[in-house]
Amino acid sequence: MKYQKILPLLLIPCLLCGCAQETAVSSGVPESSKTEASAVEPAVSDLFAMDTYMNLKVWCMDGDAALQEAAVLISGLENTLSVTNPDSDTSRINQNAGSPVAVSDDTAVLLREAVQIGAESGGSLDITIYPVLKEWGFTTQEYQIPEDSRIQELLQHVDYTQIQLDGNTVIIPEEAQVDFGALAKGYTSDKLMQLFREYGAESAIVSLGGNVQALGRKTDGSLWKVGVVNPLSPSENMCILEIENQAVITSGNYERYFVGDDGQIYWHIIDPKDGFPADNGLISVTVIGESGLLCDALSTALFAEGTEQAVRHYQQSEQFDMILVTEDGKILISEGIEQNFENISTMPVEVIAHAG
Amino acid sequence: MPDKKAKFILIITVLILLLCAVWAAFALRKPSGQRVFIIQENKIIQELDLASEKDQEIRIASPDGGYNIIRIQNHEICISEADCPDQTCIKTGILRSENLPIVCLPHKLIIRFAEEGEQP
Fold first, then answer.
1. Which of the listed residues A230, A335, B4, B57 has the most CB atoms within 10 Å of its CB?
2. Residue B32 pLDDT
3. Same structural domain for residues A299 and A165?
4. Nearest to B99 among A13, A44, A226 (CB)
5. Between A and B, how many residue pairs show a Cβ–Cβ distance under 8 A?
6. How high is the ipTM of this complex?
7. For residue B96, which residues of chain A lie inside 8 Å, CB to CB?
8. Chain A residues lying within 8 Å of B44, measured CB to CB
């Protein structure tokens, strides 16, 4: 008799806990989003391709299928563009220098864009710099400081204006060689965004070796927060950017470099004007814009252009925003991102106004 | 009789409190932002919770030969030793940010924070 009274009482804490747990589990998720097409949790994939580490996250119903197709897309582009794959478009262009070569649509797009940004940057982006880059050992990691005469000899064949493109047929001069290292990842992230959109995703973010591109906003409607590496301390971020539907792509002197026998540091961004590592006042350039391809190409171009020319380039263009870090430890940001930029470093920040 | 009733109420109260404590411990067991994945060749091979993990070293053998030694100390994680040529993974230091994973390209090894709700 006594126990009959106690038993229901004993159930009370269980019920209380049961309720409490249920609220706790669902509290993080807005009710409405459960019924929407987009998934609450992302499909995530980690992969190694194009000589780098890639992390892809997409929120959609068929997330896993989207990621599988993304992996196929990436390896397809790698096979087409890789300068080390003997069957790639790039290798066929280089092996048949002096003769016309038929290339894929992807390669044709990249060639066209590379030539255009080459022109806009006064030749600071030049995809025919490859033989010089190779001579320095940046492609094999067998680094060396080339003889001046050797650099001069190789520079004779560095000239992107000599690339002739007619539809999908390209001819480069004999002895010239191209590579798409400065554009391939940006183009790939553009293609990934397009693919995720086709899967109905409204939120996705990818990092291809630190180059970030985002689709839409986060699933809770807020902007994506993207950290940009501090070139003076590459294991830390220097700032946080808030973005939507944009790419954030950085070229920095800390990414690939070696210390020569002379004690000097030589990095992988070569100035096409003299064939030496670009040393024009900048140690890091981040470009923010809607096109990953443009951001990727411009980050290299602006780095080689140097501080003054990069600022002028920005002021004449309306297609991008940028964060420059100068060798004396100053951050210059373009005014378009001022509201979405948070400095978490000790470096001072200066805002560059757009001309006009 | 009133004495017994008071005892019951006391026991029930203690029971409620106990069960709530157990539930709280269960629900709060995994603070977000401390879960870390170790990824090799595109596969998650280990999940760690830095909040509860003891100081230790984990040796990860690379399928192509070679190794990385992962060190967990004071709830922080880094690669302390490796026989890769570039040693970039060691130079990266302690894992601090979601967008700066520890990467060993030659051994295709990654250490990164887990996404909220991401399962291995």
1. A230
2. 53
3. no
4. A226
5. 77
6. 0.73
7. 235-236
8. 46
Longest dimension (CA), chain A: 104
Q: Is A17 on the interface with B (CB under 8 A)?
A: yes
The radius of gyration of chain B from alpha carbons, rounded to an integer in Å, stands at 22
Nearest in space to B119 (alpha carbons), one of B44, B41, B27: B44
A51 and B CB contact within 8 Å: yes
Tokens of A196: 């995720």
Give the tens place of pLDDT for each residue, A59-70: 999 999 999 999
Chain A CB contacts of B85 below 8 Å = 141
Q: Residue A23 is encoded by which pair of tokens? A: 């609220």
Q: Which domain holds residue A303?
A: 223-352
Cβ distance of B112 and A41 shorter than 8 Å = no
Are A349 and A331 within 8 A, CB to CB? yes
Chain B CB within 8 Å of residue A3 CB: no
DSSP A9-43: HHHHHHHHHHHHHHHHHHHTS-HHHHHSSS-SS-E
Which residue is listed with tokens 């920040």? A349
Structural fold of domain B35-113: mini-chromosome maintenance (MCM) complex, domain 2 (2.60.320)
pLDDT at B33: 65
Per-residue confidence (pLDDT) for residue A354, from 0 to 100:
87
Q: Say if the Cβ atoms of B110 and A53 lie within 8 Å.
A: yes
- CA distance to A21, A37, A250, per residue, from A347 (Å): 46, 44, 18
Are A335 and A342 in contact by the 8 Å Cβ rule? The answer is no
| A13 contacts in chain B (CB < 8 Å) | 12, 15-16, 19-20
pLDDT of residue B30: 43
Q: Which residues pair with A304 in a beta bridge?
A: none
B99 vs A6, A14, A227: nearest CB: A227
In this structure, are A257 and A145 located in the same domain? Answer: no
Q: How far is B83 from chain A (nearest CA, A)?
A: 16
